[in-house]
Amino acid sequence: MDWVPTWGQAVSDYRGEGDEPDFDDVTVRMTLPASFGGSHARAQLSNRFADGPVRIGRAAIGVGDRIVPATFSGRSSVEIPAGMAMWTDPVELPVRHGDDVIVDVYLPEPTPYATAAGFRYDRSLPGEHTGAVPFPLEGSAPEAIDDSREFPAPNTTDEPEVELDGTGWSLPAGGPFLRTIEVAGAEPRAVLVAFGGSSTAMGWPQYAADLLPADARIAIVNRGISGNRVRLDAPPQTPSWGLAGLTRFDDDVLGTYGATHLVIAYNSNDWGLPGRVTSIDEMPTLEQLIAGYQELIDRAEEAGMTVILATITPLAPELRVDANREALRQGLNEWIRTSGHECADFDAAIRSASDPIRLQPEYAAPDDTHPNINGSKRLAQTMIEALDRLHV
């Protein structure tokens, strides 16, 4: 079969962060939006950052009124070694652009919360409940369990949205193990990989896919990681911010099957974290930032990919008063706009008309740094316009 990624996110290391309890005799349900349709589906589960193997007791994949068991080389259960990933066997499952694809995974043994990505997921009450409807959510009444094994229609879920708290930016606890969903049975015009930080990880790529018509035949894969940097790995205290973009490029971009277009859409973490979260000695020069971008571009173009660069949106309030940091943002944006590559001008799209070093209030999250839902949708529209200019 010729496989096409219909959904994906980059996984990172959640060991030791304490965001989520471990798993033991529970089923996790992950519901993800499909950007591209096909007649068959399969899911990739990653155990990249664990210290030991992970036992998958049972799995299922579903769309609409059909959820079917998923196997691994014909077996209902599998052990994924540490540092490895594994695909389910293909299942015959019609998937359309915009469908919600359900992936259920039962974890029968004590399993550390280690390898995860930035999307919502649900835990069940104790037990194996792959395909159960209604899904017996953790904390719900036991009588809500449907253990009929007939894999009936799943509950529908609202469109995922970025979560914000009163103090600023807050991403949901990462969904465990699931890295990619692929479909087969149709040929895409393009496979776009979105590569960046938090605004990419939980924002515009999904909305861009939503804006595309069903016959666009463009798959969009999100490989953003909150807190991620181009040049340097995550600091030890927050490993979930991921390996540097330059380090993870081969896995997350070149490892995305059929990728034709790369969008480099980073935040200001490279020069926003030094002196606040990490040592000030990690502060880059503009030349070093440009060199990092250029290396990503060169590697993508060597692989035959078309590159789109996104400008960096305004800094956090505590950062924009620092003339050096703001100069880095402005300098990198000027280079992006004049580099000769297609530019999705995210900065111009959501900055304030009266005070261009700030976000337009209607597009700003409470932290006045990240885009809110309206801002993410505006960035998505900006990306669609860039694709139109490229005649994708």
Structural class: alpha+beta
What would CATH call the architecture of the largest domain?
A: 3-Layer(aba) Sandwich
CATH class categorisation of the largest domain = Alpha Beta
Helical coverage, percent range: 10-25%
Rg over CA atoms, rounded to whole Å, is 21 Å
Integer tally of domains: 2
Compute the number of strand runs. Answer: 22
What's the CATH superfamily of the largest domain, by name?
SGNH hydrolase
Tell me the overall shape: globular
Number of helices: 9
Query: How is the biggest beta sheet arranged?
Result: 5 strands, antiparallel
Global mean pLDDT? 89
Oligomer: single chain
Please mark out the parts with pLDDT under 50 across 5 or more consecutive residues, or reply none.
143-171
Do you know the CATH topology of the largest domain?
Rossmann fold
Cα(first) to Cα(last) distance is 24 Å
Strand content: 25-35%
Organism: Gryllotalpicola protaetiae
Protein name: GDSL family lipase
Region (Disordered): 146-168
InterPro entries: GDSL_Rv0518-like, SGNH_hydro, SGNH_hydro_sf
Description of the structure:
It is a single chain. This protein folds into two domains: 10-144; 188-389, Rossmann fold, CATH 3.40.50. 22% of the residues lie in helices and 26% in strands. It starts with a strand and ends with a helix. The strands form six sheets. Strands 1, 4, 9, 10 and 17 form a five-stranded antiparallel beta sheet that branches. It is built from nine helices and 22 strands. With 392 residues, it is an alpha+beta fold. Residues 143-171 have low confidence and may be disordered.
